[in-house]
Design brief:
Elements (H helix, E strand, L loop, with lengths): L1 H29 L10 H7 L2 H9 L4 H12 L2 E6 L2 E6 L2 H10 L6 H8 L17 H12 L4 H4 L3 H18 L6 E2 H18 L12 H18 L10 H26 L10 H12 L5 H32 L1 H15 L7 H6 L1 H13 L6 E4 L4 E3 L2 E3 L4 E4 L1 H5 L43 H18 E5 L7 E3 L3 E3 L4 E6 L3
Parallel strand pairs: 2-7
Antiparallel strand pairs: 1-2, 3-11, 4-7, 5-6, 8-11, 9-10
Bound molecules: protoporphyrin IX containing FE (HEM).
């Protein structure tokens, strides 16, 4: 009897291996008509191109660089295999349009569940970024769209100017030419304050007090999210269970900050009014039963910080890195900003319209360094991409990073050349489907107008105020976690340009 039981037990892994072998064989056959890198040997059959991907990562390069090399080798539509998944990748402009706009294919639930509910803890939950159900997402997106329109955001241009002035004052206090400054960190504090202020009328001063609890918990929660993405077996390691518990507590505390803030706003209480915990808890309970769901609102509260802070700050840190290593770009910026603004410190919409080169510098930064380099969708119908049949249920990936560095789309793609964006409407050189750092279609970035306003005002004020000297000891590498960021955070020394 026991012998039979062990025989049965031995059969389980064999059945599993047979099942996996057949399913990988079937999926490879399904996509065999699409070109792509070959896999090597028996291990390659099971792991696909995982070893190539790991080689890139270990060599300090990005997965997006691997895709770029593959595009050059296999064409603008190709496939690659990672374990039992086959991903179809394309940079063909018409295919990008088809996937993101015409077909509006849904997001891949497996990817977004990780940020929605890591380790079964509600983090961004079903917020705008992570909600993969089109119907429920669309209802909320319609509500939020209005507040993120450019003309509505311009009502907050005073607040934007004043937050960025606070950052300039802080940087001035460090601008002695000797103090090493991590610009990414400083800008990221300002980005948090701006999102809190513009999106939620919340007054926090992370620029001068980075130890505030909102900043602390957003930062720590993101660190945990990276760990779960890049260490898939972490939850199975008992040595990490203590960390896992503390990570869950951080998420709960962050959600609690959101919940309390939302309830205070709903109850028309002033931000600085102290509400005892027990009273607020009771009020929260009463409101849970009403027509709105506080948890969904907290999902979006967190989503705006998580989706907006890093992306905004990383872009600007890359921008300063490029300005620092391209003195001719810095000189041109100074000319434009000095002639448009002079010593004027308040930047309004008319000024922004005149800062055309500054705008090109911002765009060029996003061409080379898009914080979200790749986007994946899942096809819900058969389609034809560039002559290849793509079956229903395929993962399709597009990448502004790869398109932005593809020689046939951009001349001298590795050169930082803002002028390439200087075209008029009759001479449009850049194809919209080869440059899309804010994504395209229904699920594009809702915060892009805010990001662009903050970006251009911040660059203009920075150039007005400082000379930048990059720390020569700096590692110019790039890190890809949830977003792309400069590995060393843009380490530099600043000198004031004027008093
Ligand atoms: C330079 C700055 C930014 C870049 C490059 C950027 C880029 C993107 C991209 C590529 C997406 C699509 C992601 C996907 O399909 O998976 C996205 C979505 C999103 N972004 Fe941004 N973003 C930036 C700033 C912001 C800001 C400032 C906010 C808000 C304060 C924000 C909020 C969001 C939200 C909520 C979504 C999800 C939208 C939806 O699906 O309805 N982003 N962003």
């Amino acid at each position: 009897m026991i012998g039979e039981f062990f025989k049965l037990l031995l059969c389980v892994p064999l059945i599993f291996i047979a099942y996996k072998t057949y399913s990988i064989y079937a999926i490879r056959k399904k996509y065999s008509h699409i070109p792509g890198p070959k896999t090597k040997g028996i291990l390659g059959f099971y792991l696909g191109n995982l070893s190539e991907a790991l080689r890139y990562i270990r060599g300090g390069r990005l997965l997006a660089d691997m895709m770029l090399d593959m595009c050059n080798d296999y064409g603008r539509v190709f496939k690659f295999q990672i374990v039992d998944k086959i991903v179809v990748f394309t940079i063909e402009p018409e295919a990008v349009k088809e996937v993101l706009i015409n077909q509006n294919f849904p997001k891949v639930p497996e990817i977004y569940k990780q940020v929605g509910f890591p380790y079964n803890e509600r983090y961004l939950g079903n917020g705008l970024l992570s909600d993969t159900d089109f119907g429920s997402w669309q209802k909320r997106r319609v509500l939020f769209n209005h507040g993120f329109q450019r003309n509505i955001l311009l009502n907050s241009i005073d607040e934007l100017n004043s937050k960025i002035d606070m950052l300039m004052m802080r940087l001035r206090s460090l601008a002695d030419g000797k103090t090493r400054i991590n610009l990414l960190k400083e800008i990221s504090h300002a980005a948090l304050d701006i999102i809190a202020n513009i999106a939620f009328s919340m007054q926090v001063d992370t620029i001068n007090d980075p130890s505030n609890e909102l900043n602390h918990y957003v930062y720590e929660s993101l660190k945990g999210f990276y760990r779960q993405t890049f260490e898939p077996f972490l939850a199975y390691n008992p040595g990490e269970w203590k960390w896992l518990r503390s990570y869950k507590i951080i998420i709960r505390k962050l959600r609690d900050i959101g919940k309390r803030h939302i309830m205070k706003r709903l109850l028309y209480l002033q931000n600085d009014n102290y509400v005892p915990d027990d009273i607020l808890t009771n009020l929260l309970k009463n409101h849970e039963d009403e027509k709105f769901n506080v948890d969904n609102m907290v999902d979006d509260f967190l989503t705006f910080f998580v989706a907006g802070q890093e992306t905004t700050a990383n872009t600007l840190a890359f921008c300063m890195l490029e300005i620092g290593r391209n003195p001719h770009v810095f000189d041109k910026l100074k000319n434009e900003i000095d002639s448009v603004l002079g010593s004027k410190s308040f930047i309004n919409n008319d000024d922004l319209a005149k800062l055309t080169y500054t705008n090109c510098v911002y765009k060029e930064t996003l061409r080379l360094w898009p914080p979200i380099p790749e986007i994946a969708r899942i096809s819900n119908k058969d389609l034809n991409l560039n002559g290849y049949h793509i079956p229903t249920g395929s993962w399709i990936e597009v990448s502004t990073y790869v398109s932005g560095r593809f020689e046939q789309y951009f001349e001298n793609p590795h050169v930082f050349e803002p002028e390439r964006f200087k075209y008029d409407i009759t001479n449009q050189k850049i194809n919209n489907y080869t440059y899309f750092p804010f994504s395209l279609g229904a699920r594009n970035c809702i915060g892009q107008n805010l990001a662009k306003l903050v970006g251009r005002i911040l660059i203009a004020k920075f150039v007005q105020n400082f000379e930048i000297i990059l720390d020569p000891a700096q590692n110019f590498g790039v890190i890809q976690e949830a977003t792309l960021r400069p590995a060393d955070g843009t380490q530099c020394f600043l000198l004031p340009r004027k008093n």
